[in-house]
Write the structure tokens for this entry.
Amino acid sequence: MWAALRGTLRAGGAWRAASSRPMAAPGPAAARGSTAGIIVIGDEILKGHTQDTNSFFMCRRLRALGVRVARISVVPDDVEAIAGEVAAFAARFTFVLTSGGIGPTHDDVTFEAVARAFGEQVAPHPELVALVHRFFGAMDAQCPEMKLARVPASSRLNYGAGSAFKYPLVSVRNVYIFPGIPALMERALDGFAHLFRSEQTQFHSRAVYVAADEVLIAPVLDQVNAAFQGRVSLGSYPDWASNYYRVKLILDSESEQDLEEAHCFLMEKLPPGVVVPLVTDCIAPAATEVYGLAESVPSLAGPVQWEEQPRSRACLFWGA
């Protein structure tokens, strides 16, 4: 039965828009400087059975909404472990987003854990009970599916504005409880973006690719960091697999002007010739570059033209 629910959810059946449903009052206002803590829940993550992609997606979406992710934690399917992390995160961050542990099985304990974090009990919520009855049909209150309707006593049911979901996003205070299935979590976060968006904050980024070892540019990075500390953050990320650059530098700031100043300062200080363009497709421009090289180096012109001539005759033979 649960497999059927998951399949329908993936197809949008249980998360489809329900315009007749009122939207619950939004959570804490996303003021300037809003922060978020993400708690990924699941033994399968810690054991390496499943790769976590939810936190990556959440980080990207929240940053686009003007929210700075300050911490990510991965915890097992254990009520005490989850409750402790939720309580700590709720006290430190504007928003707490949990992912995973919602469902009918023994290891789905997130609702219970969030309730314990705030000294509450779980109880059947009338709206959720009605939804479970509607989807699964009449069934006993103790059946596994009804576990989806037992939530913390002070839970708020959030329905997306404009494209509300049939099954709401449950939140308790500043804690928002997302499903663990990536397709559902992504759809839910996109649908409930209005709960987290900060209109006052916008992050700006600029990437610079350097064809030099990190140790050679470290003194320059120190200068940039010292000059713009507190206004612009600078990250240095080596890439040993790239054929085109050795280090990717990323400048981040909430001020576009500060970012531009830091970028100019960095470009002036880096050694000449080490900044290179990012090449994402080496095939498309290959012919142009080869013939350009042949034109600039006379000794290569003959071999390149000799290779080109048979291909041209073949094209003519086939009428191309």
Remarks:
- The first strand starts at residue 35 and ends at 41.
- The two ends are 59 Å apart (CA to CA).
- The first helix runs from residue 2 to 11.
- The chain is about 40% helix and 20% strand.
